[in-house]
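step: validate -> pass
step: tokenize input -> pass
step: predict -> running
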Amino acid sequence: MPWAVGGLRLGRDWVAAPDPAALRARWALLTGSEGTERERLFRPSRVRTPAAGAAALPGQRSAATARFTDAPGPCPDPVRVLREPFDEQWLLPDQRLIDTARPELWRVRDEHQVFLVEAPGPLPLVTAHLPAGRLGRIRPLHRRPGGAEPNLAPGLPALLGERYGGWATPEDFLCWVLAAGRPGPRGYEVPLAADPARWRAGLELGHRLLTVQLRGARGGEPPRLPGGRRPYVRSAVGAWPHGLAYDAGSETLSLGSGTVSPVPAGAWEYEVQGVRVLEAWFAARTAHRGPDAEGLEALGPAEWPQSWTSELLALVTTLALLADLAPERAAFEPGPGLSAEGLRAAGVLPPPGWARRPASVLDHHEEGPGGQFALL
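step: predict -> pass
step: emit ->
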């Protein structure tokens, strides 16, 4: 997957939040302020200030491009993003507010796209939403909208199809990465199996991992726990839960006086870089009520939204299934691999320079700062 892009750098945390209504409230407060108060709320950086204009983000044609100080415009509709590992939140898609928005990723973001994220840890992240956090390098599965061109080294699909006795799709390769990729000194290292049987075994495992991570996106079925088990709300979450706790004996997760069960131990213990995912998820939703919250970041829901509880139930299922698959993935052996010499001889390695750069995908003019057409 030669084309890789660094992660988005938001520059100010208030432009993203778990609750889209909070983002609209923050926009209203910011645009209703003036002078030094607007400057303080905005939190300017070297790259973005209220007095600076920016181009419209691709796909967000209603976005304003005038200087924020002069004409903020209407609040853009928040879009779903992956903010932290397994934590889907919302973002204000206005490039005037974002230090490094990566427009090249927005150009290929559509209902066909899937993003592979080289996040810290043994398992890469895969998401149907634009990654917008401190996650790692991003590799889109497709170089153009509509899934028209795979982000694979030219010649690789044909070589794999010939080697394994059938055409290998971009999704096949993505599944293989999930099953066989391992962290290395230069990023994830992905050996290619010489044995077709090992390739098929890796695809089967990788497909299950992909299905779990996508959580029903792209037309798939939401994953479910085996044996008919399903986490339920046993006691309603109160107006605002003040803590998160877990009881392994009863497999119960407590949010204040509210309880959810069954929550398998694997879901509670699932960690990324030594941090429990469920605890990080809960902390992100209570941050606006913390003592360190100030300015726009302190604006959030006054009561716990019911939608967050639904998201929690889906997240528990995702983490439990990934925990169940972790031993199988750790034990998976791709066997003897195709040699780098053979891939070079087939013209697959090294990928040409153009494959490492974004494709030209413009089918319309993009509006630059101040309403001018962007020159690309």
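step: describe -> The chain has ten helices and 15 strands.
step: cleanup -> pass
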